[in-house]
Model the fold of this input.
Amino acid sequence: MIIDTGMETSAHAPHVADSHDLIRVHGARENNLKDVSIELPKRRLTVFTGVSGSGKSSLVFDTIAAESQRLINETYSTFVQGFMPTQARPDVDVLEGLTTAIIVDQQRMGGDVRSTVGTATDANAMLRILFSRLGQPHIGSPQAFSFNVASISGAGAVTLERAGQTIKERRSFSITGGMCPRCEGRGMVSDIDLTQLFDDSKSLAEGALTIPVYTPGGWNYRLYSASGLVDPDKPIRRYTKKEMHDFLHREPVRMKIEGINMTYEGLIGRIQKSYLSKDKEAMQPHIRAFVERAVTFTACPGCDGTRLSEAARSSKIKGISIAEACAMQVSDLADWVRGVGEPSVAPLLATLQQTLDSFVEIGLGYLSLDRRSGTLSGGEAQRVKMIRHVGSSPLTDVTYVFDEPTAGLHPHDVVRMNDLLLRLRDKGNTVLVVEHEPETMAIADHVVDLGPGAGTAGGTVCFEGTVEGLRASGTITGRHFGDRAALKEKVRTPTGALEIRGATVHNLQHVDVDVPLGVLVVVTGVAGSGKSSLVHGSIPAGAGVVSVDQTPIKGSRRSNPATYTGLLDPIRTAFAKANGVKPALFSANSEGACPNCNGVGVIYTDLAVFASVATTCEVCEGKRFDASVLEHRLGGRDISQVLAMSVTEAEEFFGGGEARTPAAHAILGRLFDVGLGYLSLGQPLTTLSGGEQQRLKLATHMAEKGGVYVLDEPTNGLHLADVEHLLGLLDRLVDSGKSVIVIEHHLAVMAHADWIIDLGPGAGHDGGRIVFEGTPADLAAARSTLTGEHLAAYIGALSGQLKDTGVISSAGEHHG
Done:
């Protein structure tokens, strides 16, 4: 008798566990998203694209990744959650099919001076173990090689209960650390230039102090001139030894000065507490300029900048100390580790070797482990975070989330990054990438295009499907996917040259180069070839030079484009003049703030270990201002309505009529020129994307007077359609008589340049040389460098075709 159990049918049916092959998002409304619903395939590479501000990061980071991390955090006990950052649930109806998310973003790494590339990647920890095992002479445990551990010792009596008796014993202890006692593991020591604090040929009565806010007659000044410790009528250079000590180094002491109880402290101690203990970037410009003039940082003479104690530097393996190993270029260090070959530590050497090889594989072989992590660019910081995910990572079925992983990469390095993304996918992981680079879009299994515009004009899914489908679609990304900037028919003629001679900053090898002025110059080369060292090291920002680097904008939720650019000042003045009141009333951070929410617009309720809840202020309804302030109007609008305008609307509003304000109109024009016409004036800076912040900085710097503009990768975070807009802006700057020098990897900017300076041929000590200088057409024709090969392929021009048209001697036709 045969019984049909249905086993044959079930054997061919897919297992129910295999049906969870999609990440489902329904009704996402985070930031500018408009009820976005989408299904993303798991174990595939999905690229999210769209113009800057279209909602890519809101969907990927603030919705999918944020909810994944929040759910994982909720599995811990409430006690553990109390030590973790609290996260509110994203504004979304349904999220299904989430897996553990590993976020690799472009946030800069910690700026602490003790944080290095080695400490951030655990490579230093492995090196310390290696030297504690094999180093000769042997000096101690791994912490004896750590510049974060100080050597300490102590002794004293301890009371013990033993066998029913109380006895006292003398005990001593010692900890051997690797910290240099002179600089405390910082590698640098600071010194104050006294000539920047005072003019010693003058007396205090004659105004000797040259420190900001220490003006004659002010309390800071009278603290010294009326203290009675020094003669205010005697030139400082004639002070006695005691007077000079009291003036500069006296310990804090309470005393009565001009009838008021005050704390007197030596000038140097007071300067260190009031200026040097604060974040320099958060200072007012004139204070920051003073600190940069007055404080000098030099390599510690006790450790020669290595951060390590003499004992730690004395222990060596094959003639190399740990300080020398950390100072090596990583690619060289990997070769040295291969040569150690000690069987007793074989597992440690294998792990260390794999970590160092990952550096090289990811395009960071030019770094050294002692490089301060705070000096890394956004792209370098992201790749350093990726180190632990490269190689033979055993993780599968997790979701990797990347934010523009090709940022700061030369076209040659983009190929290697693409290979890494594909390898992560092929291990069975879901890879979500926010990206503008066409070469990375091309390898995607699935593409999601958000838009159609930015800000309130975006937040919807315009296309979802394959790369081929995107090319054929009518979206902005689809239309610009195959864009190629054409070489210029005629390049500009330089008006002069900036001579750089014998440049040796970092890896530069005595570089001599003439940078043409009055034209658009692009400095390019593979990552680590010395571009930034050449430009920022030889053309520092200062008189006549306006430098826009990649440092992130610092600001709280109270900061917005109006406050950052200085736009709010003329607006407040215009409101005050039209209504006959004080300008301070029109600031939500000052007298005009809503008393209930203190000008924030929302009320935050702290729920201990649970996520803080933000609710719109019921008094001001989120407008941030006191009701009485909103009664004052300019051109029929109150201040909250003006701050809710987009840049484009505000430019029209302040351009004429009753609200005409030339100063505000000029700032708004610069914001529009850099492609930020969609931003609202009151949008918090914390909600801006990296590309938006970069262009906001550029718009602000455009107001500065200078003949030379130095821009560091201005296309970072820009959509293909926005790059064309940026090229027009650069042309306008040059045509107005400025000299523009751009550090850039984007091939469209290279093709549009008047002159190219290419550094290389490699990175680190394999770079630092000029491998080409000339016009883009010459570079593409010669194909003598990696940049030349990629530029020739980009413009689709063969050197033979170029020669046929006679544009140049060995180059010719070019087309977009």
Summary: The chain has a mean pLDDT of 87.
